[in-house]
Design goal:
By secondary structure, the protein is of the alpha/beta class. It has a single domain, classed as Trna Endonuclease, Chain: A, domain 1 (3-Layer(aba) Sandwich), CATH 3.40.1350. Helices cover about 35% and strands about 30% of the residues. It has a six-stranded mixed sheet. It is globular and about 35 Å long.
Length: about 140
């Protein structure tokens, strides 16, 4: 079984506080003979502006030895999961959940922001101290 990110439960609680119902922990996706596991699957059955939306969330805390190595790995996972979701569950949108310090560090340059926009990255910024969603970047 794959190891959960240390912020996994924090993001799960933050999503629940934000009105999401966790439907999968993890969300299992088939890719040929392999099985991929996105950290969380959720849907918003009640809130009017989110009703019926389905998301998948990959949680990353970026506490490894090298931030760039962690970033490369996170992007690879995100893009692979997005590809499979487009084929298997096109209504589900994938988000990369990261803490605010990682967001500030990874997206502080114009090139980095342009990359995120060009690749249509969906990001969820969460506050680990209060276990809440701070911002959704679509």
């Amino acid at each position: 079984m794959s190891r959960k990110d240390q912020m996994h439960e924090t993001v799960r609680i933050a999503l629940e506080k934000d009105g999401w119902r966790i439907t999968h922990d993890p969300l299992v996706l088939p890719l040929g003979r392999r099985t991929l596991k996105v950290d969380l699957g959720a849907e918003a059955p009640f809130a009017a502006e989110k009703a019926g939306q389905k998301i998948a969330v990959e949680v990353k805390s970026f506490v490894g030895v090298s931030e760039i190595t962690e970033w490369e790995r996170a992007l690879g996972q995100y893009m692979l999961y997005r590809f499979v979701l487009r084929r298997k569950e096109p209504e589900r949108i994938i988000y990369l959940a990261i803490p605010p310090d990682a967001y500030k560090s990874l997206f502080n340059e114009e090139d980095e922001r342009e990359f995120a926009e060009a690749e249509n990255l969906k990001i969820l910024i969460f506050n680990p101290e209060v276990q809440e969603v701070i911002r959704w970047i679509h």
